[in-house]
Structures are given as structure tokens and as C-alpha cells.
Design a protein that fits this description.
Blueprint lengths: L4 E4 L18 H12 L6 E4 L6 H4 L5 H12 L21 H20 L5 E4 L20 H11 L5 E5 L6 H6 L6 E8 L23 E6 L5 H19 L3 E5 L17 H18 L4 E4 L10 H13 L11 H11 L28 H13 L8
Parallel strand pairs: 1-2, 1-3, 3-8, 4-5, 4-7, 5-6, 7-8
């Protein structure tokens, strides 16, 4: 095991562009990459451009007819077939969409291969985490499900236990669907409650197929959940499950759309809490997966103020050189961000809430508290299926 972290990056991933009026603006990727560089993190990681996922790799998760449909829409966006979720408001067709979607998927698959083969201990693809794509359809801004493909590739390489932890504000429905019947994969998703947010799935009662009961875990958080509740929920569910499952690799998805400023959702999480969970995932990988950690991006639509800072923290943590929250952001990057977006960029790598305090579940819970009710619903639904006390 080399121990060195890899950052998966090819400039062409910024071509994943649904158009000027779409919330998933690829400038968030370009600004993240330049902020990583501004902090000198390129010297701490191996920057690697993996090849695009080929047809056989895509078929580990996606149906052949769907891949063909994406290819047809890519060649002629007017030919997009809405039956496959293509050419819709969420997933407009654009020229080259197959190629760039396969490239993003290839970075996540390459990250998984590097970690499994010992070429890197940690690998990050912040352009990835496109967790809504289904085996036969695009969904929620996602064409190919790179997160599911990374997990599937690990299984193909011989992994017997892979844990996937998703802290995006939206339910990781596509990854859950891909491994619904596979007890080798533990999927854990913390997300805003499906009553109030797309994709309206991720209820605590969704626990996996009969042959894999207890392998799907969903924590449905009340709208308005802030730092203390979000961290309390994470630590009340994730560490105990990983201790029981003992994954050989931990794959995590770090959508930044939990943030209070995100325009598409309703949680009230700070950048500092996001950083706290990133640190926790790193530590859990070392505690339970021999350090093998694949970290992906995901959603996030506050493209200047939140996303670049959050994912730069993620890269820095994976590189073993965390950026302290109070660190001042280089002025050159702030000028670049303004020039590209006409938005004023933040001054520091914190929202001013570090360190974030939260109450441990072991200290007791309040049955009248909505957050505690959500956590308890998950523990009651899943923990007994795994032989754990709720």
C-alpha cells in the first residue's frame, strides 16, 4: 500500500453541462479544482486522469438499451428518448453527454481500482457522486451512476464487503437500487425526508430485498435539521453499522447540498459540519476498512460560496493535509471566482461554526424530538436485522 492519495481529474469533466439555466453549473468543478491548486494540495496528491468507462464497465450497473439510448442522445440531442429520462427538464440532452458521463464514471471506477489494488490508500473524484441514475434511466441530473459503478467494480475485483455512505441532501436512490438484493454491499443514506424533497424515497422501512435484509439503511431527516442534529444522526447510525459490517472498502458520497445556503433543499448544515463528517469518514475508513477510502462529490448548487470550499476540504483530508477552518482563502482564487461568476467569494474556509458540537446518542434521546424520532425509526428498522440493538 503506497499510502498516497489520488485526485481523479480530467479537465474534460467540466463538459458535463446541461445548459446555462440548469442548477448543476460545471463552474463548481472548475472552481474546486483551482481552489485545490491554490492551497498547494497538488503537491500532496497524485493527480490522475482515468480513462472513460467502457461499455462493459457501464453494463455492470446499466442496461445495454439505456447505454445505447444515451449514446443516441449524445450524437443527436433531438433524438433523446424521454422514456429513458433523457431530454427532460432535470436531464436535458446535450451533444457529447455519453462521452463526458462515461469519463466521470471512469474517474470513480479508476479511484476504486487504485484503492483496491493498493496504488493509493485514498482516492477522490469530486466530479462524481451522481447517485440518482438508475440501471435503465437518467434521473436527478445524473446520467451514469458512477458511485454504483465504483462499488460494482470493487465487487468484480473480488471485494466481499463494500460499504457506501451517502450524506447528500437527496436520497442515494440509484445506488440503493443497484444493490438492493446484494448483501455484499451496505448502503447508508442520510438525507432530507422524502416528504419534502426529491426523489421521495429513502424511508427508514426501505431495508433491502429478502436476501439482503438490513443492507439498505435510510435516515430521513426533518427539513430544517442543522449541524448538531445532522452530526448526531450520522454518529448514531454510521459507526455502529460499519463496526458490524467490517467493510473492506468504504465509498462515501459528499454532496454539498445539505448546506443552509443551497437553493434546492431545506437542511441547515454549515460547511464546518460537512468538514466534520468528512473527517469522520476518513477516520472510519481507517478504523474499519484498513484505510481504503473512495470519496466522491455529488450535489451542491451554491457553486461559489459552498461547493469549492467543501470539496477542497475533502481533498485535503484525503491527502493527509487538512486545511484548518480559519484559513484565509487565497485572494487570487477569490478574484478568479468573481471573474467567472460575478459572485463575491467567501474569505475563509469556515462558516464560523468550528468546532461543531453535537450530543452523542449514547447519552440518551428525546422521544418527542423530531430528529431523534428519525434516528430511532432507522435504528428500529435496520439494527435488529443485523443483530444489533435498536
Amino acid at each position: 500500500m503506497s499510502g498516497r492519495a489520488q485526485l481523479m481529474w480530467d479537465e474534460a469533466v467540466t463538459g458535463y453541462d446541461f445548459g446555462p439555466d440548469h442548477p448543476m453549473d460545471p463552474v463548481r468543478l472548475a472552481l474546486t479544482r483551482s481552489l485545490v491548486d491554490a492551497f498547494g494540495l497538488d503537491r500532496e496528491v497524485a493527480v490522475v486522469a482515468a480513462k472513460p468507462a467502457g461499455a462493459s464497465t457501464l453494463r455492470l450497473v446499466h442496461r445495454e438499451d439505456y447505454v445505447d439510448a444515451v449514446g443516441a442522445a449524445s450524437a443527436d440531442p433531438r433524438a433523446a428518448d424521454a422514456a429513458y429520462g433523457l431530454g427532460t427538464t432535470d436531464d436535458p440532452a446535450f451533444a457529447g453527454m455519453h462521452e463526458v458521463s462515461a469519463l466521470i464514471a471512469g474517474q470513480s471506477v479508476g479511484a476504486a481500482e487504485a484503492v483496491w489494488r493498493g496504488e493509493a490508500l485514498h482516492a477522490v473524484n469530486f466530479a462524481g457522486g451522481l447517485h440518482h441514475a438508475m440501471p435503465g434511466a437518467a434521473s436527478g441530473f445524473c446520467i451514469y451512476n458512477d458511485a454504483a459503478l465504483a462499488v460494482a467494480r470493487l465487487l468484480e475485483l473480488g471485494a466481499e464487503r463494500v460499504a457506501y455512505v451517502d450524506v447528500d441532501v437527496h436520497h442515494g436512490d440509484g445506488v440503493q437500487a443497484a444493490f438492493w438484493q446484494d448483501p455484499r454491499v451496505l448502503t447508508v443514506s442520510l438525507h432530507e425526508h422524502p416528504r419534502t424533497l426529491f426523489p421521495q424515497t429513502g424511508w427508514p422501512e426501505e431495508t433491502g430485498a429478502e436476501a439482503a435484509e438490513g443492507s439498505a439503511v435510510n435516515v430521513a431527516l426533518p427539513a430544517g435539521t442543522g449541524d448538531a442534529g445532522w452530526l448526531r444522526a450520522f454518529h448514531a447510525v454510521v459507526p455502529e453499522l460499519l463496526a458490524d459490517f467490517r467493510p473492506q472498502v468504504l465509498v462515501t458520497q459528499h454532496g454539498a447540498d445539505t448546506h443552509v445556503e443551497d437553493p434546492l433543499a431545506h437542511l441547515a448544515v454549515s460547511l464546518d459540519a460537512q468538514r466534520s463528517v468528512q473527517v469522520a469518514c476518513h477516520d472510519l475508513a481507517h478504523r474499519y476498512a484498513d484505510g481504503r477510502w473512495v470519496a466522491l462529490g455529488g450535489g451542491g448548487y451554491a457553486v461559489v460560496d459552498v461547493v469549492p470550499r467543501s470539496w477542497t476540504h475533502l481533498v485535503a483530508i484525503a491527502a493527509g493535509r487538512p486545511v484548518e477552518p480559519e484559513t484565509v482563502i487565497p485572494e487570487g482564487w477569490r478574484q478568479q471566482a468573481f471573474a467567472r461568476t460575478r459572485q463575491l467569494a467567501p474569505m475563509r474556509m469556515t462558516d464560523g461554526r468550528w468546532p461543531v458540537a453535537w450530543k452523542d446518542w449514547e447519552d440518551g434521546y428525546d422521544p418527542a424530538d423530531r430528529l431523534d424520532q428519525a434516528v430511532l425509526a432507522t435504528r428500529k428498522a435496520v439494527f435488529p436485522l443485523r443483530g444489533l440493538l435498536p
